[in-house]
Amino acid sequence: MTRPVTEDDVLTTTAATAPGMARLLLGNRVAVAAGLVVIGFVAVGLLAPALAPHAPNLQHPEAIRQPPFWYSAGSPQHLLGTDSLGRDLLSRMIYGARISLLLGVAVVLITLVVGTALGMAAGYFRGWFDAVMSRLVDTLLAFPFLIFALAIMAATGPNLVALVAALAFKGWVDFYRVARGDVLAAREADYVTAARGLGATTSHILFREIFPNIVPPLIVLATLRMATIIIAEASLSFLGIGVPPSIPAWGTMVADGRADIAGAWWIATFPGLAILLLVLCVNLFGEGLRDVLDPRMRT
Amino acid sequence: MDHPLLDVQDLHTHFSTYRGTLPAVAGVSLSVRPGETLALVGESGCGKSVTALSIMRLIRPPGRIARGRVLFDGDDLLAKPRREMQDIRGGRIAMVFQDPLSTLNPTFTIQNQIAETLRVHRVAKGTQARQRAVELLEAMGIPAPRERLRSYPHELSGGMRQRVMIAIAVSCRPDLLIADEPTTALDVTLQAQIMDLLARIKQERGLAVILITHDLGLVSQFADRAAVMYAGQIVEQAAVSDLIAEPLHPYTQGLLRCVPRLGRPDLPITPIEGSVADLLALPPGCRFAPRCPEVMHRCREAIPPMYETPTGRLVRCHLCDHAPEIASAEKTV
Amino acid sequence: MQGRFVAHRLLQLLPVLIGVSFIVFLTMHLTPGDPIEHMLGQAGRITQQQIDDLRAHYGLDRPFLLQYGLFLRNAAVGDFGSSYSHQGRAVSQIIAERSPATLELTLFAFAIAILFAVPAGVLASLRPQGRLDRSATVAALLGISMPGFWLGIMLMILFGLRLHWLPISGRIDLAVVPQYITGLYTLDSLLTANWPGFWSALRHLLLPALAMAAPMAAMVMRMVRSSMIGVLGQDYIQFARAKGLPEISVVGKHALRNALIPTVNIVALQTGLLLSGNMIIETVFQYPGLGKLAVDAIGAADYPLVQAVVLIYAVSYVLLNLGADLIHAALDPRVRLA
Fold it and tell me: Among A220, A263, A298, C255, which one is most buried in terms of CB atoms within 10 A?
C-alpha cells in the first residue's frame, strides 16, 4: 500500500546536517520565541546592575509593602511594589535571575559531565562496574531528592557549594541512563565493529565514534533538566534551605511573601511568575530542540 | 440478482502530504458478482490496499476519498451515514489483513475478540457467543478450540492467527470478503493451507471475494477474474485464464515474464525495466510509459482510456485502440 | 507465578532499604548540628554533665557503625526508637499517627490527576494539533513548569483569601473530627455518616490535592496523548474498525488499554518527584502529614524520626513501582511469561 510521505521522513533527511537542524529549529516559531525569552532572562541577569532601578537588598522604610504601580497607593519608583522590609520587588527579581540561571547552568553541567562519563563507562565496559552502578542508581532513585537536599542543607547551613551538591546529587542519574543506554546500543552497531576491525583503540571508539552520536539526546536532556533544577532550587530556597538569604532569589522571595498573602499578595506572586515564565520557556525551547535533534524521544 | 454485488465507479482517493497531494487511487472501477472471486494484482505501492480500504470507508486523514461511488448491493457506501457503515463493516463486508500478529489486539484474548464482533453485530452474546466462537474455530480447522479461546494472539502460531482472523471475518456471515495479502506473511506450506481454507469457506458460504495480492500463482489458482493495477489505476481486467494465457497490457506481460514457470526452465525471467512510479512526480501521459517496452508517442501525451474488447476484457493501453473506448475510464453498467 | 514475582520484587526491596538507610544515617551523622543542642534549646543553663548524660542516654556517644547496627536490629522488629523532637515518643507511633493524612492526600491527588488527565489525553490524541490538543499541551507544559509551592500559594490566595471558598491550612475542622476507623477522615466520616466531618475533610483536602495533582496530571496527560497517538496508528486499530466496531469501542477499549501500558511505567518512575512534591505541599499548607513531619524533623536533627520517614518513603517507592509492574502485567499479557 502506498505509504504517504510524512513529516518524519522529511525531518530525518533534512536534520542530518547541522545547518539543516538549525533551519528546522528556526522554523518552529514557538521554540524560537521561547529561546529568545530565555536569552532575555540571561541578558537581564547579566545586566542586572544596570537594569535594576534599586539595589536589591536596600530597604526603603518609607515604602514598606507598597503595591505595584497600577494601584493608587503604588508609585513608579517601585513598579512592582515592595516587600515587608521595603525592598524593591522588581530589582530583587532582576537580580534573582542571576542566581537561578547560574545555579541551573552549573548543576546541569556537573550532572551532565558526571552522568555521561559514568554512563558511557558502564555501557561500554559493562562488568562489575555496571552492576555496582545499577545498584547505586536503584537506591538513589528510591529517594525523593528533597530528603537529601534537606539533610545536606540543614546540616551545612546556607552554602552555595552545598546547594549545588544537593541539587546535583540525584540529577546525574538521568544523564547516566541515557548515555549508558545509547552506548549499549551503539557498541553493537556496525560502524563500531568496522572501527574495531580497522584497529581503533577503545578511547578512539568511545570519543570519536560513539560520543558524537549520543550528544543530541544529551543536549535535549540537559535543556529539559535545566528547567527541573531551576524549580528544585526555588523549592529549596522557599523552604529556607537554599540560597543564602543575603542573595536575592525567587524562591526565597516567595517564602518572604507568604506571610503577607492576605494583604500584600504581590510579594509572593511576581517572583513565582518569573520562575514560571523562565521554566516554561526553557521547556518549550527544549521540546523544540528535541523535535529537531531526537524525534524519537518525542512525546 | 442481475446487478453486481459490488460496483466501484471511478474511485479517487488522495493523500495530503508534506510535499503535495498523492493520488493513491486515480479512477479505479471494478465490480464483483455474488460468489465471484476478483483478484486485485500489482506490486507494492500500486494502490490495491488503498482501494480496499476505500471500499470499506476506512480511509482517514490525511487521506480522503475524493470522488467516485462504491455501490454495494445497489447502495452507495460513500453516501451512507456512519452508523450504517459500521453495521456493514464486518456484517456484510469483511476484511482480512496481511499480518495477523499486528492486526489482532495483543492485550485481549481470542475469545474476547471473536465474541466482540458477534456482539456488535447482534449475532450472539454471552455464552451463546462463546459457543459460536468455538464452532467457528473448529470450522477454521483450529485444534482444541476451547483452549485456544483463552489464548492471546502472541501465544499462537502465525498460521493459527490467520485462521482466527478469518474466523472473525466470516463470523457474521458477510457477503463479501476482502483479503489483503492474506498469505504474504506466512511461509509456503501455510500459504497453501490458508488458501485451501479460504477456498473451502468461499464455497460453503457462497462468499464473493476480492483477493489482493502480488502473487500471480495465487491468482491463477484461486480467482475467477483479475484486475491488474499500476500506480493507482487499473490497467487490465479480464478473466484469469484469459489474462494469463494472453496478457494484453505491457505491464501484465512484464509481470508474467517475471514469474518462473514450473516445467519450463527454458523460459527466461525478465525483470521490468525502471522503478515503480513516484506518485508525487507522475508523467503527464500513461503512467507506465517510462518503463514500457512498446511505448508510442501518443502514450506520453495523455492517460490512455480504458478499451473494451469484444470478449469483455478491459485494457488501458493504446495498443488495443482498435477496440471501442469506455468513456474516460468510467464504466457504466 | 504472580506470587513468586511479587516475593522476588519485595526481596529486592531489602538491599535498597539498607542502602537508603545507610546513606541517610551517614549524612545525618556527618553533618554538623547536634541533636542534643536542638533538644535542649532554651532550657536554661545546662551543665556539660547533663549534656553528656543525655548523649549517652540516646547512644549518641557510641561509634558510628555500632549505632547503625543497633538501628538496623531494632528496625527489623519495628522499633525505630524515640523521637528527639516529640518529647521522646516512640517514632513508630508518631509515624502511624501521621501516615493516614499523607495517604489520604496522595490518594486524592492521584484520583484528581488521573480523572482529569486520562480523558484529556485521549481526547487530545484524537485530533492532534487540533484546538483541544494545543490547549491541553499548553496546560500540560504549564503544569510541569510551575513550582509546586507557588501554585499552592496562588490557590490559597485565590480560593482561600479572595473567594473564601476553601480553608487554607490544616486537615479538618476540629469540631467534626470523625471516629477513628482507618485514619482517613473522608472515609471514616462516610462510614459513620458524619456529613459535616466529610465535608470539612474534603474542603481541606481540595487545595493541597490540586497543587500536588497538577504536575502529575500534566505528565500523565502527555504520556497518554503520545501513546494513544502511537497506538491509534497500529494495525489492530484498523482491524477493529474493519470489524464494524463503533469508534468509542475502538478508542476506549482497544486503543486505551494499550496506551496505558507505557503510561503506568512513566508514572511509576516519577514517584520520587511525587514524594518530594508531597513534602513541599504539606509544608505550604501546614498539612499534618508525613511530608511536613519529615521537613520539621530534619530541621530539628531528629535522627530516629528522619530515618524512619525516609525508610517509609523508600518502601513506598518500591511498592508503587511494584504495583505499577503488576498493573503492567495485568494490562499486557505479553510480559506475563517472564
Answer: C255
